[in-house]
Amino acid sequence: MSFEYSRVLMRPVTEALVEKIRSIDSTVKLNLEKLQSEQNRLAEALKKRRINVVYLAASNNYPEGCFIEDCAVIIGDTALICRPADQSRRGEVGVIRKSLEKDFHLKVHDLKDPNALLDGGDVLFTGKEIFVGVGQNTNEAGAIAVARLYEDYSVISITLTSKLHLKNMISMAGTGVIVIGNSTESKHLYQQIKDLTSNTYYKLDLDSDIPANVLFANGAMIHRSRDEMGTTNCSILDEKIGYERDEVELREFDKLNRTLSSLCLFINRTKTTRQIMSDINDEDINSYSTLTRKGKDYYK
């Protein structure tokens, strides 16, 4: 069932991220304790919604590994391993691939096209269809790979002009409910959706892109804190959303334009599950072979 999850994968934020950002842009001052606290509060909100939080081992080799959403697309019991546009992040997917197969027994597939680029943050599953944002992080070949694997759903490419991910500006706030930010690009994205889909969605317009990334899981919404959302946006949610909501502050991650969903990789399985602490690390994957899907020429 769409938006019903039993587990979520997370990867701890480490000092390596702070050091990397400092080396790139000394004007961005990150506080590791605040980052860890925000991530932990998100994990607690997910646990409150009966979702087992599974932590994969962190690695200093991949400072941005905590942004786990970019590493895979998971719909039902099928996972597509991504290929981030940022080459320094491509090694992150190995531990994700092995965990999804070994620990969770998902049907795992890799991109065949060597030119395909795909970030999970650019893939929005609505429960009815899949939108893929094509821009600086994901290209058309990546969108085609999504369409070929998830053939039971309509897959629609929409154009991104900024360096941000699709889900920085638009996300699912409920079944059939899309929340959209107020930037020019956000409005352009929603217009593309209206022009290209035959499905009907209820739209929540917010006055900023910052609160436009929300999580809808197990019948509840998780969104940014009321201080971050602002009075107007909170009033909209108070009026329009009748189901339970949880607030999570993300001010420190916001310095990197990162979102609630960027820290999560949700798994929807119907089996009764137990909490798992994976001991798979990056050194385990050196000789790991590429997975293939039988019966699909594209993946042979």
From TrEMBL:
Coiled-coil stretches noted in the UniProt entry, renumbered to this chain: none
GO biological process, one term: positive regulation of nitric oxide biosynthetic process
Domain of life: Eukaryota
GO molecular function: amino acid binding; dimethylargininase activity
Keyword hit for Hydrolase: yes
UniProt keyword list: Hydrolase
InterPro entries associated with the record: DDAH-like
Family: Belongs to the DDAH family.
Protein name: N(G),N(G)-dimethylarginine dimethylaminohydrolase 1 isoform X1
